[in-house]
Specification:
The protein is an alpha+beta fold and 556 residues long. The protein contains 18 helices and 16 strands. Strands 5, 6, 13, 14, 15 and 16 form a 6-stranded antiparallel β-sheet that branches. The chain has a 4-stranded antiparallel β-sheet with strand order 2-3-1-4. The protein is elongated and about 125 Å long.
Length: 556
């Protein structure tokens, strides 16, 4: 089969050239580096700084405000934990009971698909037995993200037109802008799983009931709660027809200001209504909170952008930044007492972009330098310019082919995965050297001196076929040696498997290029006639000039 492939692509050079162009273009499109060609689309490999080695887990979050950790443990965490143990693929369940809420971490086997596990949990939550949890308590499934999903943190701060901090904003004002404007805008960004608000005060209506007034009117507290609930709703009735036009009859009762609550009737005594304002004070105030966000010693309001599982973190961050620029003009603004006009501004607090760019940039430089050094070494050791061109030209193409396979095999580009390509470059060079050296050996035989055209093609075919099986065996041995790495489980497997995958992809890419592209390229290059004396004279002059330039540069 290999012999037929080699012969076909050697004889049909147009097909070979088209395949080479497609591979190069496709590789540039999927490359994780910031290569802007200006005319090619971008579909890069997902990029992150480090591999995600966290557990395959889902989180179930349940709130029960005002309850002690012991009550939460006894009435929510324990019943939920025992009930969720029946989900297929569950390895272990861990629960945390804190004042006001319960958090259950359900850890699945590594082979369990992420979204399949979420659907099984939702099935369980939708079929909870009656009486398992207290009335009014509803568990919720956490966002579809992993532990490394927090890719962007930001704060909302008042700034003037020059970008200088101004202050003058209350924490509840900033939190309101965050919850009802910024959060909604960023939630719509592609790849974002959740935008969590942190800090500030959530504004709410608060009723401070006077116990003496309740005792005087003989009104229990639960009646006050019922009165507020019943007064905060719209009601619908039938329709009426007036002048052949139909009108809807509605009763508007939603609360819009504190006065609406104050007028709510709690009870009627001696035909006199008792209103909320008669037994208490209604005001706007902050909701109870369990944490703050501190920045430089000052309390601030901000948010956390969580990237969705399987998304490209770098692309998500870039999309979030674009969305922030889009919504920035609509953020609230006001004129302060000193006459300065202040507008709320989204200020980055933690941005993984720099870490990703530095990691990928370092590896990009390392790969470029390694390819360049390999080319120089081949040129020096082979001592054949045409052979060096053939061997060296396939290295970048092999790396681009690796990016293509990474994209569609689901392997992210991170510091470990790209290191596998760097490790494989030496073996990739060996594949080309073995093929080309054998071609040169055949061409140096007396019976093959000066062969051209089809005769040259036959010599190249014979030389390539002669070592193809040996190279196949050598590469297969190298790939098989990585089987223990592929068999790793848990955190170790998530850390090192990407390296094994990328090295295997790179070796296979070099082998495919060796049997498809290299023979045709060798036929092109070896068939070129040139004057050896002139070429030697050119290289001698070039080396002399380079030596003089280096000597002058060294003395400066």
């Amino acid at each position: 089969m290999l012999n037929k492939l080699i012969k076909y692509f050697l004889e049909n050079k147009l097909v070979t050239v088209l395949i080479l162009i497609i591979l190069i273009t496709w590789g540039v499109v999927t490359s994780p580096f910031n290569w802007n060609t200006g005319f090619l689309p971008k579909d890069p490999v997902p990029v992150d700084a480090i591999p995600d080695i966290g557990e395959n887990q889902q989180i179930v979050f349940t709130q029960w405000p005002g309850r002690s950790p012991q009550d939460i443990e006894d009435q929510i965490s324990y019943p939920m934990t025992t009930y969720l143990l029946g989900i297929p693929g569950v390895k272990t369940i861990r629960s945390s009971s804190i004042f006001g809420f319960s958090m259950i971490n359900i850890i699945f086997d590594e082979q369990t698909e992420f979204y399949w596990s979420r659907s099984r949990i939702l099935e369980k939550l939708n079929s909870l037995p009656a009486g398992l949890l207290p009335d009014g308590v509803t568990p919720a499934l956490g966002p579809d993200a992993t532990a490394l999903g927090q890719v962007y943190w930001y704060t909302l701060e008042g700034r003037d037109k020059n970008g200088n901090p101004t202050g003058g904003w209350d924490l509840h004002e900033i939190r309101t802008a965050q919850d009802f404007y910024v959060k909604y805008g960023l939630n719509a960004v592609e790849g974002v799983s959740e935008v969590a608000s942190i800090g500030g005060y959530v504004q709410e209506y608060q009723i401070d009931v006077n116990p003496d007034a309740l005792k005087a009117y003989n009104i229990p507290l639960h009646k006050v709660m019922q009165a507020v609930q019943k007064s905060n709703r719209d009601v619908g009735a039938k329709t009426i027809e007036v002048n052949q036009a139909e009108y809807l009859v509605r009763g508007l009762g939603y609360i819009k200001k504190t006065e609406d609550i104050e007028k709510a009737v709690v009870a009627v005594q001696d035909n006199v209504p008792v209103r909320i304002k008669d037994i208490g004070v209604v005001s706007l105030g902050p909701a109870t909170r369990r944490g703050v966000l501190d920045k430089g010693g000052a309390e601030v309001v901000g948010g956390v952008v969580v990237a969705r599982y399987g998304s490209n973190p770098l692309a998500v961050i870039n999309n979030v930044k674009d969305k922030i620029k889009e919504i920035a003009p609509g953020l609230p603004k006001k004129t302060l007492a000193n006459g300065v006009e202040s507008q709320l501004t989204v200020v980055p607090f933690y941005d993984r972009t720099q870490l990703i760019h530095e990691t990928i940039g370092t590896l990009e430089n390392a790969l470029s330098h390694e390819i360049l050094i390999s080319i120089i070494v081949v040129l020096v050791l082979v001592l054949n310019l045409r052979a060096s061109i053939i061997i060296s030209s396939l290295l970048p193409v092999g790396v681009l082919m690796t990016f293509i396979v990474m994209q569609y095999a689901g392997v992210d580009a991170n510091v470990v995965a790209l290191s596998g390509i760097a490790i494989a470059i030496g073996v990739m060079v060996d594949v080309g050297i073995v093929f080309v050296e054998n071609i040169i050996r055949h061409l140096e035989m007396p019976e093959n001196h000066g062969v051209k055209g089809k005769e040259l093609m036959q010599v190249i075919y014979k030389a390539t076929v002669e070592v193809a099986s040996a190279i196949t065996t050598a590469l297969a041995t190298t790939v098989v040696s990585f089987v223990p790495v592929f068999a790793m489980q848990s955190a170790e497997g998530k850390l090192f498997r990407p390296l094994a995958f990328t090295k295997t992809f790179a070796l296979l890419s070099a082998f495919v290029l060796g049997i498809i592209v290299l023979p045709a390229l060798a036929h092109f290059v070896m068939g070129v006639n040139y004057d050896k004396k002139r070429v030697r004279r050119f290289w001698s002059i070039l080396l002399i000039v380079a030596g003089m330039v280096f000597a002058i540069y060294a003395h400066m």
